[in-house]
Amino acid sequence: QVQLVESGGGLAQAGDSLRLSCVDGGRTFSTFTMGWFRQVPGKERDFVAAIAWSGDRTIYGNSVKGRFTVSRDNSKNTLYLQMNSLKPEDTAVYFCAARNPRNMGMWYDSSAYDYWGQGTQVTVSS
Known about the structure:
Elements: E1 4-7, E2 10-13, E3 18-24, E4 33-39, E5 46-51, E6 58-60, E7 68-73, E8 78-83, E9 92-99, E10 115-116, E11 120-125
Parallel strand pairs: 2-11
Antiparallel strand pairs: 1-3, 3-8, 4-5, 4-9, 5-6, 7-8, 9-10, 9-11
């Protein structure tokens, strides 16, 4: 069973850095493509980044390219999102998600993910 728990959110100022973590309490973390999405009230959930099960491939949303880095440590069942040069528009609830290998959906599509964490709030002030 997949159980995703995010942490590391909080308050930051523009230009600051934060690192989010997502721990999977299950036993199948190393087989899943993992993704990060974010959502603000009244809007759809937006793609942030994703990483292959092996860690050898990553993709990013256009708004975070060059500033955010996704990584994973399969020995610790943990997914990370290093967020640098934060902007006020990065303010959102950030969710990690796991994509079952049998799911053929695109990595940037939230419907391609089978399991979700509860989210962690990131607030960036100007």
